[in-house]
Amino acid sequence: MVDMVGKAVRKWWGLFALPTFLAFIVGFIVPFIMGVYLSLCEFTTVTDGEFVGFKNYAKALADKEFLHALGFSAAFTVVTTIAINVIAFAIAYMLTRAIRGSSLYRSALFMPNLIGGIVLGYIWLLLLNGILAHWGRALTYSGVYGFWGLVLVVSWQQIGYMMIIYIAGLQSLPSDVIEAAAVDGATGTQTMFRIIIPLMMPSITVCSFLTVTNGFKLYDQNLALTNGAPSNMSEGLAMNITRTFYGRMGWEGVGQAKAVLFFILVAVIALIQNRLTTSKEVQA
Fold first, then answer.
1. Domain spans of the chain, in order of start
2. Domain 63-282 class in CATH
3. Measured in whole angstroms, how far is the alpha carbon of residue 223 from the centre of its chain?
4. Cα distance between residue 221 and residue 150, in whole Å
5. Which residues of 171-204 are buried (b: 16+ CB within 10 A; e: fewer)?
6. Contact 223/241 with Cβ under 8 angstroms?
7. Are 132 and 141 in contact, with CB atoms under 8 Å apart?
8. Residues 231-236: what's their mean pLDDT?
9. Helical pair 64-95 and 143-171, crossing angle rounded to 10 deg
10. Structure letter (DSSP) for residue 141
11. Is 258 exposed, middle or buried (0-12, 13-18, 19+ CB in 10 A)?
12. In Å, what is the CA distance from 126 to each residue of 68, 147, 222, 236?
């Protein structure tokens, strides 16, 4: 029976894959191509585009608010990528040791990832503004307050998810290599940096990729926590693109051009990061 099913799948695999392939074409490829074309047009709807070449890209790159949002997102991504991965790895390492109730701790730390970004943002908005009120401040007092508020919220939300990936990686490490290092007299620090971390590079590659892309794509928490205030100083790239497209009359083409630039930027950075971390992977 199993062999018959396998033969059927091998024979008709194209038919099985067709619905998913069509959905991918309709839901991603076609809109992407239309988006690139519209970034070269002035338009108000997708049917009245007037080709203007790279005029929209020039306006996008000359927009100081867009460049500020780019710097804000870049700094945010660097900080959160380091913070989330270091803390998640440390927690995962501790929870793979003989600790009572480790399963409970894992569940509790993973739970924030189940909360939607908008809801999470509003909850933390109340908490952080309540704390800052003692000093007569609020998250919207300056871009710096909004920046670190977003770092705190996003890190708190994503650490549990990355922790699960690191735990899976740590549990799959070859115990004989670590035991051999202990027999050879390697210290805990030497074992960590010369054996465990190099063997964990596949997990680090995955987690780094996710945190880098999530950092640049941040929108929900940004909207709920600061909405870009004050004066768009705490506005990330995704929010700037949305505000340009929907909030500035006649700038739809510029907003689309920003979206294309955003895609290229995130794709290039993700590929570079993935190549750098993958090159450091070793065979167990």
1. 1-51, 63-282
2. mainly alpha
3. 16
4. 7
5. eebeeeeeeebeeeeeeeeebeeebbeebbbbbb
6. no
7. yes
8. 92
9. 40
10. G
11. buried
12. 26, 16, 14, 21
Alpha carbon distance 220, 236 (integer Å): 11
pTM above 0.90? no
- CA distance to 47, 78, 283, per residue, from 201 (Å): 48, 18, 10
d(CA 85, CA 122): 25
Q: From 65, 42, 46, select the one nearest 250 (Cα to Cα).
A: 42
Which amino acid is residue 223, in one-letter code?
Answer: L
- DSSP bridge pairs for 41: 51
Q: How far apart, in whole angstroms, are the C-alpha atoms of residue 26 and residue 200?
A: 38
Which two tokens mark 209? 């990729």
Are the C-beta atoms of 176 and 104 separated by less than 8 Å?
no
- For residues 15 and 9, give the distance between their C-alpha atoms in angstroms, rounded to a whole number: 9
- 59-70 per-position pLDDT tens digit: 999 999 999 999
pLDDT of residue 102: 79
Round to whole Å and give the CA distance between 207 and 212: 8
Report the C-alpha gap between 62 and 201 in whole angstroms: 39
**What value does the mean pLDDT take over residues 5-11?**
67
State the angle between helix axes of 143-171 and 201-217 in degrees (0 to 180), rounded to the nearest 10.
Answer: 150
